[in-house]
Amino acid sequence: METPRHPLPPFTMETALQKVQIAEDAWNTKDPEKVALAYTIDTEWRNRTDFINGREEVKAFLTQKWQKELHYKLKKELWGFKENRMAVRFEYEWQDHSGQWFRSYGNELWEFDENGYMQKRYASINDLAIEESDRTL
User: Can you tell me the distance from the alpha carbon of 19 to that of 9, in angstroms, rounded to the nearest whole number?
Assistant: First the structure.
């Protein structure tokens, strides 16, 4: 059994906000190994139109993501929570290999197991091309 990842569900406003900040901080490291540790071994994701199953696929997905999305910077915001589930709004900015900047907007639905690992993550994301001067993150 894996060590619990605090804070644990059921969440309070304080612990839900902590969990969102922990996720934001981890994703901003752009370290697939570190980020993947927050998910169950058999985690289920839908990210845009990709379906990802298991921690190993998460690592591969994130490695490819951050090879494509240069200068990645993310901000997450809690929108709601109940027991072991959360709704989170996010935006992030990144640059592609041609030099074009983007701001990606999205919503995530999260479900955690009793040990605080995310077992389900469903993300809907849209990308907007922006000028470098329009960056806010």
Answer: 10
66 within domain boundaries: yes
Q: What's this model's pTM, rounded to 2 decimal places?
A: 0.96
What is the side-by-side order of every strand in the sheet holding 118-130?
Answer: 50-53, 39-47, 118-130, 101-112, 85-95, 70-82
What tokens appear for 95 in the block? 């640059």
CA-based max dimension of the chain: 48
Contact 43, 17 (CB under 8 A): no
pLDDT tens readout for residues 36-56: 999 999 999 999 999 999 999
Residue 121 lies in a domain: yes
What is the distance between the alpha carbons of residues 92 and 87, in angstroms, rounded to a whole number? 17
Residue 60 belongs to a domain: yes
Q: Which domain holds residue 103?
A: 13-134
| Number of domains the chain is built from | 1
Look at strands 101-112 and 85-95 and give their pairing.
Answer: antiparallel
